[in-house]
Structure formats: C-alpha cells, structure tokens
Amino acid sequence: MKPTLAIALLASAGIAGIGAVDARETMLRGEESLESRDLGSNNRTNHPVCSEIVDEETGWWESRVQLRANYFTVESLVTDLDNYCTNYNDDPDACRDPSMRSSYTDLSEEELKASCIMMGSSDRRCVGNPCNQYNTGECTLQATAGRCVWLTKKQTNKANKYLGEKIYLGHGCYNNVCHAKAVGRGKLTDEECEDFSIPGVMDCTWCQGGKKYPELKGQGVGCQMTTARTTAKCAPVNNKNIDKSSIWEQLSNPKCQCSSTYTLCNAAVSEGDRGGSDAFILRYPRSSTPSPTPFSSSP
Questions:
Q1: Distance CA 239, CA 26 (A)
Q2: Nearby residues of 189 by Cβ (< 8 Å), 6 or more positions away
Q3: Contacts with 229 (C-beta within 8 Å, 6 or more apart), sequence order
C-alpha cells in the first residue's frame, strides 16, 4: 500500500541528520527486547487486523518500519518540536505527559510544554506529535503508518462521554490511542490493550507474534485498532494557540490545512509537487504561488 507523501519522504533514505547516532542507538536498544516481548500466548487467536496490517500487499506496516528506521533522514523536515521531544527519549511517561517532566530542570519552557509521543514499535525515541493540526484529508491509519486517525464531532462527543471528561476538543486528527498508550509499557495482556479502547470510536486488540503468527514475529506491532484502514476529511486550522505563520493550505483545496510545527505537515509542505494538486501555500498572508521551503516553528 502506498503511504502518504509525508511518510514516504520521512522514510526514504538511511539514518542521517539531526540526532542520527543517538536515534539509531536508542532504536536498537528497543529492538533487542522484541523477541521476548511479542511472543504472546499460544492459547489465543489474533484479531484478523493484525495480519492485515503487516500484509505486504494491503498493509501499511512496512512504511512504519521504514519511518522508524529513517526518521531523522532529512534535516529540513525535522521540526523544532521533534528536537525538543528528544529530551524525553527512554522516558515514555515524560514523553507523553508534560506534567511528568518536573525532574527536567534544565530545559526551556518550550521544551517542557512540547507535544510529544513515543515513536513506538519497540522504539524508545520520543518525537513530536505528528497528528496535531493535520487536517489535509490524509489523517488515516494507512497514510500515517498507523499513527493518526480522524475523528468526527460525533465520535469526539462519544469519546468524551465514555471518558467522563472533555479530552477531545472537536473533530480533527488524533493519535491512534491503542498504539500511543501502549508504547513503552512492554508486553501487555489482551485485557490491558483492550482497556485502552474507546468503544465505538477506537477499539483495541493485542497482536501477538511467535510461532503461531510468524508474519508478526519480531515486528513489534503490539496494541492496534481493530481496523487497518480509516477515512479522513479536510478542515481549517482554527486553533488560536497555533502560530498563524505555520499554517498552510492546499492550493487545489484551501479547506485542506495543516501546521508545519508538526512533522507530517512540515514534510508535506516542504516536498509537495509545487505545480500540482499537492502544492501548499501559506494561509497568512495569502499568496497565489507556493512558497519554497517552510521553516520549523516552535509549538
């Protein structure tokens, strides 16, 4: 399955650029424990989605593997946010939750407030949250290597009701909660993975490998949604906390917008087809021609 342009660009070459050596070492440390983490119990049966995800013809897992291996390949696509988040490598709690960063006393306010997420798939690196403000119509599991999903207003209302608090602020692009919450917790039981579910919005299942599922052995697929493909819509970026100078819109459809503060958007607007439908222009101020290369902006 062909990944979105942003994923393809981020996963296109060998390790190089910002933080490359440390990133490779961190990634390998995570891989060392894969064999013991995903064997699972031979007494259970995987949900069919597990094999669908890693299928060479229809799945998107290979793009995730390449993304994980080559994340810092293209320096111009690595955002300030990504660099801020590397402070929390090997610390899943601090990576996911700014309130858990009190011991990081030597960091700037921007670094302490950074919106981060673990790379996942047994990779212990902390990177910028790629899903924020990614309203380009590409916020799907298959287009983002399993990291992001688009939720409608109805779905966010349902999720908030189930959670008992307003976590989701409205329709938009959000993390795949099944995978995001499982990262860094080691091998989970079926029940632990399923407990991350938001019924009817994001339902979770544990994907085991081992002898019973050789196609999954050593892959680190772990906790995933029970569907391999999702849909997404375009929407404006209207969050008042987002720097207006980072907001881009698609030339062929101005309703498709994103913020280059975040990696997926930064990749898309940096390397999109300048003269074609993939081209992006700055929303503020409006211009009739695509801008060359965007800059990375602070969160």
A1: 34
A2: 206
A3: 140, 141, 142
